[in-house]
Amino acid sequence: MTTQEKEILNKLIAKHKTSQAKALRARIILQFHEGKSLSAIATALGVAYKTVLKWTERWKTSSTSDVEERLKDLPRSGCPDKFSPEQVCKIIATCCESPVEYGLPITHWTHRELANELIKQKTVESISTSEVGRILKENDLQPHRSRYWLNVKPDERRDERINRICAVYANAAITPNELTISYDEMTGVQALERIAPDLPMKSGKPQTTEFEYKRHGTQTLIAGFNVATGEVMGTCGETRTEEDLKEFIKRVITENAGYETYHFVGDQLNTHKSESLVQYVSNYCGMTGDLGVKGREGILKSMQTREEFLSDSNKKIVFHYTPKHASWMNQIEVWFGILAKKVIKRGSFKNKEELNSKIMAFINYFNETMAKPFKWTYQGKVLVI
Description:
The chain has three domains: 3-70; 85-138; 158-369, Ribonuclease H-like superfamily/Ribonuclease H (Nucleotidyltransferase, domain 5, 2-Layer Sandwich). Helix content is 42%, strand content 12%. By secondary structure, the protein is of the alpha/beta class. It has a five-stranded mixed beta sheet with strand order 3-2-1-4-5. The chain contains 14 helices and five strands. The longest helix has 18 residues, at 352-369.
């Protein structure tokens, strides 16, 4: 035995993932190498003499193979396959099809239902549920499982939108005469009241929260994140209508008067491109032209025409819209995560008013003690690995 082979055997024994059978064989070989007799090895390891004889002989006669290969069982002939390759392919194909195609009122197969259908279709004469399970496992098929996926809608302006927002974020800290606000709505925030108080944390035991709760309704938070300072403005209420959004934008501008340009970064929700928002921006910027009629003509005609107006950089208020399915580019979403973890997830609220007040209190607390700009490093470029 070489030094390297000895090291490999010792590593196999020490490794947690090594099977007990393989570790036992490694111990037999190591003790044999130390010069112990076969009977002494059998007694020491509590195995039969013929087992020690088998693996020591195998070790001596397979010296050209690597260590792990020499500790493996030899292939067994076994019984012939019960199903032909064609039958196995048909079993797999049937599993990958919807049961609805076979006239069954179910969404997915169980082993029993698949076995019954295979017999009904005369794919096989007979097959047990365990045999179906074995074939599916060998081919890594799991009809009982499902996952959601998103068929991402194409956005022809994706790169343009990403580059524009990244540029706005980068300029926020170096353009003191411009205000950049990342805004959005956090909807359906539930006022849940736990039916029993939390149990406090103890040594070796985390805080315990009561599982059952009472529902007291929901609130909607409309909030904006100052990209340059990290401060947050918010308003909490019952709805998130276009009027609510317009009033929030108006409040942000009123309470931050004096800037040459106001940049707002948001997603493509219809209330973010509303008729009332266009009218407010037009009036604030002193525009006197005809805005047209919603659904018919002019700037107000459609979502697209309203977006073109709101995102036009040749005015004092400019909106920047994230690409479709890319709201993660909106920095306020990061702050919503902070709010959820620190206030909502473990919170217990007796009514909507208490939820509202605690959210607004956290905004004040955050601005006083935690506010700082996020370090935005994404540039919209493909990462090179």
